[in-house]
Amino acid sequence: MERLIRIVVGVVFVAFSVGKFTRHDAESAAFDRYGLPFPDLTTYAVGVLELVGGLALVTGILIVPFAAMLACNMVGAIVTAGRIEGDIIHLGLAPVLLVSLLWILRRASVRRSAAAPRRPETGPSRAG
Predict the structure, then answer these.
(1) 3-state class of 57 per DSSP?
(2) In degrees, to the nearest 5, what angle opens at C-alpha 46 toward C-alphas 70 and 103?
(3) Could you say which DSSP state residue 112 is in?
(4) At 16, is the pLDDT very low, low, confident or very high (cuts 50, 70, 90)?
């Protein structure tokens, strides 16, 4: 189930990234309307993050850093486009993706802590 969620979330990001390049003028105009700085450059930066991050989630490579960056991206989408547009993508899908990414991060941290070697306790010993 975890892998399926990670792959589906990754595919969604890859799909949305394509528009940042194929419909760059419209996406850049939207970013400008949302009040984002340097909308032309920001559109490319977000497109690259969504493309590379989505592919990372699909392939299982560097999941934690990309899930964290994409989660920040979704917070940005909710507070900017969600506030201006108020549509189902920004106030429906973006929060679902955010929660999914946080779940992925949580699962990764649980796996990491379970796999981490335990250090022996080195407190003061009581000789009797």
Answers:
(1) helix
(2) 10
(3) H
(4) very high
pLDDT for residue 30: 92
- pTM of this structure: 0.82
- Distance between CA 82 and CA 122 in Å, rounded? 52
> CB-hemisphere CA count at 13 Å for 116?
9
For 19, the token pair is 């528009």
Residue type, position 9, single letter: V
Q: How far apart are the first and last CA of the chain?
A: 53
Q: What is the Cα–Cα distance from 24 to 1, expressed in whole angstroms? A: 34
Q: Supply the DSSP symbol for 76.
A: H
H helices then E strands: how many in the chain? 7, 0
Burial of 74 (0-12, 13-18, 19+ CB in 10 A): buried
